[in-house]
Amino acid sequence: MEKSFNGKTVLLTAGPTYEPIDPVRFIGNHSTGKMGFAIAECFAARGAKVQLVAGPTNMKAHHGGITVIPVTTADEMFTAVKRLAPTADIWVFAAAVADYKPKVVADRKIKKAGAEFTIELVKNVDIAAALGKEKREDQFAVGFALETDNEDSNAREKLIKKNLNMIVLNSLNDPGAGFKHDTNKITIIEHDTTTAFELKQKSEVAQDIVNLIWERLYA
Ligand code: CTP
């Protein structure tokens, strides 16, 4: 049976965020957006309308059902997500949002001076957690977690804290998984179930995630 998302709207975040230090520098991370874009293609192929809020990435969306909303910073991502969240049935937070941003952004290029240089950072908004507070009964939220230790319990803590229905756990302990790889090994954690998957291509991992969401919502 075709696991269709016809008539459903999916809001997705993907990619890194860049937090400016001055006009030429930023704090970022190695996220490529590959996983988020693969999930977007998968939902769109099954009939969903996809709103993909993406940080700086070289990835392109192919399916006509995907609208990309490009953003740079966590604050911009949050603004876009807040606007789109109420009309979406499913939220998937696949972005690697920078946890901190420079407290002050210099309006001119910072010149080098002494041997040491300190940048003061302040916490960014937690997009998934903020949205979790507004989630309705009819909405379904999925987060990601990248852990190196106490994987299961850390992921469960995030599931509860961010009011998610499902968390996709990527373990850095698995060879071939994570940033810069085309493959990923995930475990999907829900309040009462844990499902482990084999090491697979990211496009296949996306299918597994989307299949399980479908099962939980419409089976
Ligand atoms: N997330 C988010 N906004 C943030 C940080 C994280 O929306 N400012 C989302 C991510 O997209 C992911 C989930 O929250 O779906 C978990 O992110 P992660 O960075 O692993 O968790 P943190 O809560 O930031 O915890 P820590 O960095 O301490 O592990």
Could you give the topology of this structure?
Blueprint: E1 9-14, E2 19-22, E3 25-27, H1 34-45, E4 49-54, E5 66-70, H2 74-84, E6 90-93, E7 100-102, E8 121-123, H3 127-132, E9 140-147, H4 151-161, E10 166-171, E11 183-184, E12 186-189, E13 194-196, E14 200-201, H5 202-218
Parallel strand pairs: 1-4, 1-6, 4-5, 6-9, 9-10
Antiparallel strand pairs: 2-3, 7-8, 10-12, 11-14, 12-13
Helix pairs in contact: 1-5
The protein binds cytidine-5'-triphosphate.
Residues 13, 74, 93, 95, 97, 99, 124, 126-128, 143-146, 158 line the site of cytidine-5'-triphosphate.
Describe the structure.
By secondary structure, this protein is α/β, with parallel strands linked by helices. The protein has one domain (9-109, 119-218): CoaB-like (Rossmann fold), CATH 3.40.50.10300. Helix content is 26%, strand content 27%. The protein has 5 helices and 14 strands. It has helices at 34-45, 74-84, 127-132, 151-161, 202-218; strands at residues 9-14, 19-22, 25-27, 49-54, 66-70, 90-93, 100-102, 121-123, 140-147, 166-171, 183-184, 186-189, 194-196, 200-201. It has an 8-stranded mixed β-sheet, sandwiched between helices. A two-stranded antiparallel sheet has the order 2-3. Strand 2 (19-22) and strand 3 form a beta hairpin. Helix 1 (34-45) crosses helix 5 (202-218). The termini are close together.
| CATH C-level name | Alpha Beta
Helix tally? 5
Q: How many strands, which pairing sense, and closed or not: the largest β-sheet?
A: 8 strands, mixed
- Helix residue percentage: 25-40%
Distance between the termini: 11 Å
Q: Give the ordered list of helices and strands.
A: EEEHEEHEEEHEHEEEEEH
Within CATH, the superfamily carries the name CoaB-like
Q: Which stretches are poorly predicted, pLDDT < 50 over at least 5 residues?
A: none
